[in-house]
Amino acid sequence: MISVVIPSYNRRDCVLALLADVHAQEGADFEVIVVDDRSPDNSVEAIRAAFPQVTLLVNEKNGGPAVTRNRGIRAAKGDIIVGLDSDVTVPDRHVLANVQKRFNQHPNVTGLAFRLYKPDGKSEDTPRWWHPVPIDQYADKSFLTSYFSGTAYAFRREELIEAGMYPEILYMHYEEVELAFRILDKGGSILHCPELSVLHHANEVSRRSEVSVFYKPRNQLLVAVACLPGLKAVQYAVPRMAFQFLTACRRGHLKDFIRAMRSASQLIPRRLEKREPLRPETMKRIGALKQGLAP
């Protein structure tokens, strides 16, 4: 069975539209779990009224996307997790059936990365293309990758849990990057599947400047500390911190950058306690994937 896990925060109309699409799916056995992250609107009441068959969980306090997704994954009964952010729609009624088909075709694949379109259904959602290969050459192809977007994905539940699920310490942003690293380090693989597609409506909640000026530089540093071997961590973090610093100066966000670095310094000891550098074999795989190779 497939468990569809939908994290939701302050997106009542969006999540209702998504739930309508999910419940229109054909050819698959599935359950639906919505985890509300203490929305200040009436999302909870609206979901209960319109979709009483949905398993609805409500966080006691706002925990962020990583916490919210993990709660849904833990509650899931299916052996496959399909994660959909609440600001997507799913016009294709056979997406879940195709997810099951793909996993049957590729028994050794851990996860599937969906193709993300803009609302017009034709344009690629380029800001969320973080795969290690060029979007213009690979968007319509199946390929092994070192990344997936939390906007829309599918994973085998047991392997997702074994990899540690989303790192909750990050709150939001770069949590998929670290989880992808952990999946690869466990010997798993992620396959980009262009036929598994959703429309991403990029709700304003997800475009807050706080993501770019605070969470991005902070979490880039925290991921490097937790995941990358010594020299690789330095090579990863230093140019990114320099770029973020210069960008903050140019755009007038220096105070935010300093705040991000202060927060990172407070969290680094906790990251060092559980630091697990990626294996050399994993680093080689990631390097090969950047060249479009399938190790």
Automatic annotation (TrEMBL):
Tell me where the transmembrane regions lie: none
What EC designation does it have? 2.4.-.-
Q: Which Pfam families match?
A: Glycos_transf_2
Sorted keywords for this record are: Glycosyltransferase, Transferase
GO terms assigned for molecular function: glycosyltransferase activity
- Coiled-coil positions are none
Supply the InterPro entries for this chain.
Glyco_trans_2-like, Nucleotide-diphossugar_trans
Glycosyltransferase 2-like domain segment(s): 3-158
Q: Which family does it belong to?
A: Belongs to the glycosyltransferase 2 family.
Classification via PANTHER family: GALACTOFURANOSYLTRANSFERASE GLFT2, RHAMNOSYLTRANSFERASE WBBL
Mind telling me what this protein is named?
Glycosyltransferase
| Taxonomic source organism | Luteolibacter soli
* Upper lineage: Bacteria, Pseudomonadati, Verrucomicrobiota, Verrucomicrobiia, Verrucomicrobiales
